[in-house]
Amino acid sequence: MPQYDYLKNQIDEIGRFLAQLVADFLKMKKGGEQIEAVAMVENSLKENLDLSLDNLIQLSAEEPIALLKPDSTASFIYLDHLAKILFHIGSVEKDTQKARKFMQQAQQFYRYLLDKDPIYSFERHQQIEKIEMILKG
């Protein structure tokens, strides 16, 4: 059982880290510090998860889930946080090609969640529609 408890604690820690990362990003974005917010996310992901934003936009939806326990609530929450981060970075990215990639990856993650997560989320559905409007626009 100690092995399971350790893994559960690690998963919980990743979830808390990502939730805090989203909150910090939104706080900085609201304060007009978009460039600093993106840099903070990039540095935090590298330090804590050994992931860069460029790597993140190239992952399939299954890859982040594979790091955790597949089909677990924690994994879905983890992926939801990553999708939020990508969406918000895409909304402030000046390079339109890069912004599009962030949005497309966020959309892929949200669609995966709608398909696999047994808990329906109206917010996720709205995010997908919002991303579709942005990508068309």
Topology at a glance:
Layout: H1 2-30, H2 34-49, H3 53-56, H4 62-67, H5 73-92, H6 96-116, H7 122-136
Helix pairs in contact: 1-2, 1-5, 5-6, 6-7
* Overall shape: globular
The total count of strands amounts to 0
Order of helices and strands: HHHHHHH
The portion of residues forming beta strands comes to under 5%
What is the C-alpha radius of gyration, as a whole number of Å? 15 Å
Q: Helix coverage percent of residues?
A: over 70%
Structural class: mainly alpha
Largest sheet: none
Give the overall average pLDDT.
85
Low-confidence stretches: none
Q: Gap between N and C termini, in Å?
A: 52 Å
Structure notes:
With 137 residues, the protein is mainly alpha-helical. The chain is 81% helix and 0% strand. The protein is built from seven helices and no strands. It has helices at 2-30, 34-49, 53-56, 62-67, 73-92, 96-116, 122-136. Helix 5 runs antiparallel to helix 6 and helix 6 (96-116) runs antiparallel to helix 7 (122-136). The radius of gyration is 15 Å and the shape is globular. The chain starts with a helix and ends with a helix. The mean pLDDT is 85.
